[in-house]
Amino acid sequence: MAARLIALALFVLAVSSRANAQTYQRLHVKSFVLSSSTDSPRVEQPFSVTMTIRVAERVTHLDNVFLPELLGTEELGDERSLSTDAGGTTYRETMQLVAHASGRVGLGAAFLDAIDARNGKLSRFRSNPLTLEVAGPGYPGPGAWAAVVSLLFFAAMFGAALWFVLKRHRRAHVEAAIEAAPDPQPEPRPSLETALAELRVRRDRIAVMNARDRLWEEVGAQKGQTLADVLTLPVAAHPRTRALLFALERAAFIDEERLQNAIDEIPA
Fold first, then answer.
1. What 8-state DSSP symbol labels residue 258?
2. Tell me: the pLDDT tens digits for 151-189?
3. What's the CA gap between 199 and 191, in Å, rounded?
4. Of 100, 138, 145, 150, which residue is least crowded by CB atoms under 10 Å?
């Protein structure tokens, strides 16, 4: 008895499945696409979303087609068309929509329930979903923002190139001005008389050494020569010059306690 009940249940299930399967079309679905007339619709401005299904069979209608969820938009109406050719059938349904607020709008995938002719199984074929950015009044969409960013980028590049050119031009101008400028002339050294006059005012060892250096330059002494070497020079035979040589040499190397007396002994 139990076996008969099980067999009867299986028979009823098979008949029921066959009846349900017969309500679905057997199709080779070649493509299923959801597209929009714009990626950045504006608030309160209608736009369209089109669902396109392409099948290999030549049919007069498509059953079990389900539209996407149109969250964030209002449907104003739709238009359907079906055409056949040697390659099969193309079904299109275009929906007129409008958004009442700015922001991101997500349209879910549309789907078609049919028997997949490739394997004979009941399948749900899905389209791609859509994500749209709705721009408010006076608010530029993504395309406009991209144009603005590109414009700013090129403006920055142009500004950098112009700055570089001007900097090089200015540098070349400065270098040319430096090359054209005359070499600075060394300040003239004070004469021996000036050095002696400064010595009588300052009365310190630095002034003594300055006067000694000027005297040695005037007589033509070389670095490294001693006083004995300088005294052999012809100009050193002059009485005043000879007296200055001895007096400045003494004042240059005398101890600090007797420096002022040594300065007083330097001939005028």
1. G
2. 777 778 877 877 777 777 777 766 776 666 666 666 667
3. 12
4. 138
